[in-house]
């Protein structure tokens, strides 16, 4: 009995479900993607799929266009989200929880339903569906992911630093740019990553808000993955996107660590 209690109280025992989950739903899918990317339809090793990607103009153009849309959406979310997070984090702001709830409420509904509702709103007001509708829908879906990291960073910031800057002669604008903005950069970076990464790989929002007239890289991957003869090429596109996202996250983490070290 004591051994059973000892095993049940061990951290390693409770870690096994998470390990199994990671193996089944993270590691195994990545291995399958890599396997299909480096093989042909007969299962033989090949690099032709990668060569096809670098010579396939549609894939390259779609990927660059997806990056452009992701940059635009990230910038829009940052321009809207940073002021909202800053206002919510101020001590004189009396209803930050109410504002937070207003931003959370749409996320309680599946994003596909929100996107369909956005399509109906555009149809109701006679607005055309296209690139503008796509950016609106992306911003609507991912704006909370920009606001909350910045809000959490600003809320935890030591206000005595701002007071010290003002005591040294800085006005409110200078205190904002010299103290608040640099200290909020970890939250800004987290928000950028949380908005930029899923925007690059999204496909359902683009299909619904443009009537499938605008294809993003995620849409291209879906088309090839669902086609049996092109499954291996779709795996290459997925692997390329995973590598780029991984490199972006890796270098971003190194930069954020450098910023923290510079502030100490």
Description of the molecule:
- With 264 residues, this protein is an all-alpha fold.
- It folds into 2 domains: 1-37, no CATH class; 49-263, MetI-like fold, CATH 1.10.3720.10.
- 80% of the residues lie in helices and 0% in strands.
- The protein is built from 13 helices and no strands.
- The chain is globular, with a radius of gyration of 23 Å.
- Mean pLDDT is 84; it is low at 258-264.
**Helix share, percent:** over 70%
Beta content: under 5%
Summed up, the domain count is: 2
How far the N terminus sits from the C terminus, by CA atoms, comes to 50 Å
At the fold tier of CATH, the topology name of the largest domain is MetI-like fold
Question: Multimeric state of these chains?
Answer: single chain
The biggest beta sheet reads: none
Task: Annotate the secondary structure layout.
Elements: H1 2-9, H2 11-37, H3 48-55, H4 57-89, H5 96-104, H6 111-124, H7 131-156, H8 159-167, H9 172-183, H10 185-201, H11 204-209, H12 217-225, H13 231-263
Helix pairs in contact: 2-13, 3-13, 4-7, 4-10, 7-10, 8-9, 10-13, 12-13
Tags for this model:
mainly alpha, disordered C terminus, 264 residues, globular, 13 helices, MetI-like fold, single chain
Care to give the gist of this entry?
By secondary structure, the protein is mostly helical. The protein has 2 domains: 1-37, no CATH class; 49-263, Orthogonal Bundle (MetI-like fold). It has 13 helices and no strands.
